[in-house]
Design a protein that fits this description.
Blueprint (H helix, E strand, L loop, with lengths): L2 H18 L1 H4 L1 E5 L4 H13 L6 E4 L5 H5 L1 E2 L1 H7 L4 E2 L2 H4 L4 E4 L7 H13 L1 E6 L2 E6 L3 E6 L10 H4 L4 E4 L37 H11 L6 H16 L7 H12 L43 H15 L3 H10 L14 E4 L4 E7 L9 H8 L3 H7 L14 E8 L2 E8 L5 H17 L1 H4 L1 E9 L2 E9 L2 H9 L9 H17 L3 E8 L13 H17 L3 E6 L6 H10 L2 E4 L5 H11 L2
Parallel strand pairs: 1-8, 1-9, 2-5, 5-8, 13-14, 13-16, 16-17, 17-18
Antiparallel strand pairs: 3-4, 6-7, 10-12, 11-12, 14-15
Helix pairs in contact: 1-3, 9-10, 9-11, 9-12, 10-11, 11-12, 16-18, 16-22, 19-20, 20-21
C-alpha cells in the first residue's frame, strides 16, 4: 500500500471512531484545503453518524449569541417576556460541529468550544437569562493554514484525540481503500465497558508510560488514547481492551503529539551492543535466589510494542526534525505585530457596552436586547400601552478593536572599528522586515549615533527603495554617544505614538559609552548619562529590545537593558536572518 493510501486508510478509521463517539473522542483536526478528498472524508463521517445525531457547520467569525445562544429578540418583543433561543453548540448536542478555517478562529470562540468539550454542558448567563443546556459535542476542525505558522488553536487541538493531514492524498488514493462499515457502537455514557483488562495487560499504565517516553506533557493525551482503546474494543464487540487496541490507540492518538523519540530498550535475549558489559552468567538453578516469574516481563514487552506502534506513526519530516533540532518551536504569525487599540467607530466589532451614541456607533440590536426583558414591568408601571419603552440605561454602543501600525525603530551604534559589521547586520534586518511590511502593517526607522551625537537616518517608512537609499549612505566610525542615541530613539518613538502607531525600539550596541551628552569624551560621565537617559526612556513605557553586539555578552549592555526596561538579546554572531527572527519574536 502506498503512503497516501495508508494515510487515507487511517483517515477512514478515524472517521468511524469520531462518528461512533463524538464527545468521547473530542474530535479531529483535519489539515487539508477544500477539495474532493476532504469533502469525501466529511461525507463518510456523516454516513457513519448514528441516525438522529446532528452534524452542524460553524462559519468563520460566528457571533457569540449564535454560538452559545441567548435572547430570542423577536419572540421576546412579541411575548413581552424573555424568551431564550438555543445556540449552535446546543443544537449540535450528541453530534459533531464542523468548524471551517479553524486557523482563523478567535480566542473567545475557542474558549466556549473548550468549555463544552470539558463539561458537556453550556451555561448561558446574558440578556437577563440564566440557563444550562447540554452540549456534548465533538469537533471537526478544518485547518486550511499554510505552513506551521497557521494552525488550529492549540487549546482545542489538545482536547481532540486525532489529527490527520490530507494535503498529500490525491483523489486517486481513495479508490483503492474500502470504506469502513457503518455498524458499530452507540455509546450513551462515558462509563468504561464491563470486565477488566486481560491478565498482564494494563492499558492505563502502558499508555501513560508511552506518552511520557514520547515527551508528551499533556495529561489529556493518555486519557484520550485510553478512551479510543476502549472504543476500539467495543466496536469489535469485546468487553475487554486488548493490547492491539492500545497499540492502535497509541498510533492514532499519541504519534502526532510526540516531541521526542523514545529510547530503545534491549529486549530479553538481545545481544548487547559493542562496548556494553555482558550480563553475568546465570548460576545453576539450585543456587539461584527466588526471583520474579519470567512472565512478569510480558508487561514491559507489551509496553515496548505500543511504543513502537506510536513511533511508526510519527511523520517522517517530524522524525528527522526531532533528531536534528529537538522539540518543535512555532514562529510568530505574520500580521499580528500591531498592538490592540480600542476605537470608537472603526475596526473589528468586539461586542457592545453601555455608552453615549453621540460619541460612538449605536448598536441597535444590543439596545433592543437590553430593553426587551423589562417591557412587561415597564408597561405595567406606565399603565399599559404597546410601544417599546427604552431607557437611557438600555443604550448600547459598539466596541471596536483594531491593530495599530507598528514602527520598528532601529537605533544603531555606528561608532568604533566594528561599526561596519553592525551596520551590515542592521541593514539586512531592516530589509527583511520591510519585505514583510505588507502583511504585518509595519514601518521601520533608523537612528544612528556616532561622534558627538545621533541623527535620524531613515524616517518611519515602509518603502523598500527609500530604505535602501538611506542605508547605503549610512556612515560609521568615531566615538559612542550612547545617551544621545537613547534620547533620539525615545523622541522618534513618542512621535510614532502621537500619530497613533505602536513604536518598538531595537538598539544595537555593546553598552560601552565614551561620549557624554555634552559632547565631551569620558567613559565615567558618558556611562552615567546613558543610564539617566535609559531611565527616562523607561518612564515613557516604550517596548524595546537591546541587542548586545559585542563578541561576548557585556555586563554594561545588560545593565543598560535593565535600566531601559528592554529585553536583552546577546547575539554576537547573529546574521541578518537570525536578528530579524529574534526581533519578530520579541515584539509579539
Amino acid at each position: 500500500m502506498s503512503e497516501s493510501s495508508a494515510i487515507w486508510a487511517d483517515a477512514l478509521r478515524i472517521a468511524r471512531l469520531v462518528a461512533a463517539d463524538p464527545h468521547g473522542c473530542g474530535g479531529v483536526v483535519v489539515r487539508a484545503g477544500a477539495g474532493p478528498v476532504r469533502d469525501r472524508w466529511l461525507d463518510i463521517v456523516r454516513e457513519n453518524l448514528n441516525p438522529g445525531k446532528p452534524l452542524r457547520r460553524m462559519p468563520v467569525g460566528i457571533a457569540e449569541d449564535r454560538l452559545i445562544g441567548g435572547l430570542d429578540l423577536a419572540a421576546t418583543l412579541a411575548a413581552g417576556r424573555p424568551v431564550a433561543q438555543a445556540g449552535l453548540l446546543a443544537e449540535a448536542d450528541g453530534g459533531l460541529l464542523v468548524a471551517a478555517m479553524a486557523e482563523r478562529m478567535g480566542q473567545g470562540t475557542a474558549a466556549h468550544l473548550a468549555a463544552a468539550l470539558d463539561t458537556g454542558r453550556l451555561r448561558v448567563e446574558r440578556d437577563g437569562l440564566a440557563e444550562t443546556r447540554p452540549a456534548k459535542v465533538g469537533l471537526v476542525l478544518l485547518d486550511e493554514g499554510i505552513g506551521e505558522d497557521e494552525a488550529a488553536p492549540a487549546s482545542l487541538a489538545d482536547r481532540l484525540a486525532f489529527h490527520i493531514d490530507l494535503t498529500t492524498v490525491p483523489p486517486s488514493a481513495m479508490r483503492g481503500v474500502l470504506r469502513p462499515p457503518c455498524d458499530g457502537l452507540s455509546p450513551e455514557s462515558d462509563k468504561p465497558p464491563h470486565g477488566g483488562a486481560p491478565s498482564g495487560h494494563d492499558p492505563v499504565a502502558e499508555l501513560s508510560e508511552v506518552a511520557a517516553r514520547l515527551g508528551i506533557a499533556s495529561l489529556r493525551a493518555p486519557l484520550l488514547a485510553l478512551r479510543v482503546a476502549r472504543l476500539l474494543a467495543r466496536l469489535d464487540g469485546r468487553a475487554e481492551t486488548a493490547e492491539a487496541d492500545a497499540r492502535e490507540a497509541a498510533r492514532l492518538v499519541l504519534g502526532h503529539r510526540a516531541t521526542r523519540l523514545p529510547e530503545h530498550e534491549s529486549a530479553p535475549g538481545e545481544e548487547p551492543e559493542e562496548g556494553e558489559p555482558s550480563p553475568p552468567e546465570q548460576a545453576p538453578a539450585e543456587q539461584r535466589e527466588p526471583g520474579p516469574d519470567p512472565e512478569e516481563g510480558t508487561g514491559q514487552a507489551s509496553e515496548d510494542r505500543i511504543v513502537e506502534a506510536a513511533r511508526a506513526a510519527i511523520p517522517a519530516g517530524l522524525l528527522a526534525m526531532l533528531i536534528r533540532d529537538g522539540p518543535r518551536l512555532r514562529m510568530p504569525k505574520a500580521g499580528k505585530a500591531g498592538a490592540k487599540a480600542v476605537s470608537a467607530r472603526s475596526g473589528r466589532p468586539m461586542g457592545a457596552r453601555p455608552g453615549d451614541p453621540r460619541r460612538a456607533r449605536l448598536d441597535l440590536i444590543a439596545t433592543l436586547r437590553a430593553a426587551s426583558p423589562w417591557q412587561g414591568l415597564r408597561r405595567r408601571a406606565e399603565g399599559g400601552g404597546t410601544c417599546l419603552m427604552i431607557r437611557p440605561d438600555d443604550i448600547r454602543i459598539t466596541r471596536f478593536r483594531q491593530r495599530t501600525e507598528t514602527t520598528t525603530i532601529f537605533t544603531v551604534d555606528a561608532s568604533g572599528s566594528s561599526a561596519l559589521e553592525r551596520l551590515a547586520e542592521a541593514k539586512g534586518a531592516v530589509e527583511l522586515l520591510l519585505a514583510e511590511a505588507y502583511t504585518r502593517r509595519d514601518k521601520v526607522a533608523l537612528v544612528a549615533f556616532r561622534g558627538a551625537g545621533a541623527e535620524l537616518v531613515l524616517a518611519p517608512t515602509r518603502s523598500l527603495v527609500r530604505a535602501r537609499r538611506g542605508l547605503a549612505a549610512l556612515p560609521g566610525g568615531g566615538g559612542t554617544p550612547l545617551a544621545a542615541g537613547i534620547d533620539a530613539a525615545g523622541k522618534v518613538a513618542l512621535g510614532v505614538r502621537r500619530g497613533g502607531g505602536t513604536p518598538v525600539v531595537v538598539m544595537l550596541t555593546d553598552g560601552r559609552a565614551n561620549v557624554a551628552r555634552s559632547g565631551i569624551a569620558g567613559r565615567e560621565r558618558a556611562g552615567e548619562d546613558s543610564l539617566k537617559a535609559a531611565r527616562l526612556f523607561r518612564e515613557a513605557d516604550v517596548r524595546a529590545i537591546l541587542i548586545d553586539t559585542a563578541q561576548r555578552p557585556q555586563d554594561s549592555a545588560r545593565r543598560l537593558a535593565a535600566a531601559m526596561g528592554a529585553r536583552y538579546l546577546p547575539l554576537p554572531y547573529a546574521d541578518a536572518g537570525a536578528m530579524s527572527a529574534a526581533i519578530r519574536s520579541a515584539r509579539e
